[in-house]
Amino acid sequence: MPTETRQTSTSRTTKEKPSVKDNSNENGTEQDLNIADLQRMTMKELLELARDEKLTDFTGLKKQDLIFKILKERTKMNGLMFGEGTLEILPDGFGFLRSPDYHYLPCPDDIYVSPSQIRRFGLRNGA
Q1: pLDDT tens digits, residue range 56-76?
Q2: pTM of the predicted model, to two decimals?
Q3: Given 23, 40, 66, 87, which is the most exposed site by the fewest CB atoms within 10 A?
C-alpha cells in the first residue's frame, strides 16, 4: 500500500499542467485546456485556434466571449479544462476562483465554483 502512495505522489509532482499547445490526442486535437493559457493568448492567436477547431460564427466576438466559445465547444468533445486562482467563497455558499491578474477582484474571467463542489472537497477561502 505505501508503494502505491509513493507512485501516486511522484506522478502528481512530475506531471506538468496541460496547456492548449502540448496535449494532443491520437487525432491531433488538443483535449485539455488551461483557461489561464487561453487568457494569456492574443486575439490573433485565439482566432487562429478557433479556425483550427473549426468553430463557426466567431468573428466580431470580444476576447472573453471567444474564449468562452472555445471552452464550450471543447467540453462538448469531453475535453478537460483546468483553471487556477484563489477561491473566494461568498455568503450564499458558492465561490469564484479569483485571478491575481485582476488583483483578486471580481472580473469576467472568474471561474464559478458550486456549493456542492465546495462541500464535496472541503474547500475554504484562499485554497
Answers
A1: 888 899 999 999 999 888 888
A2: 0.61
A3: 40
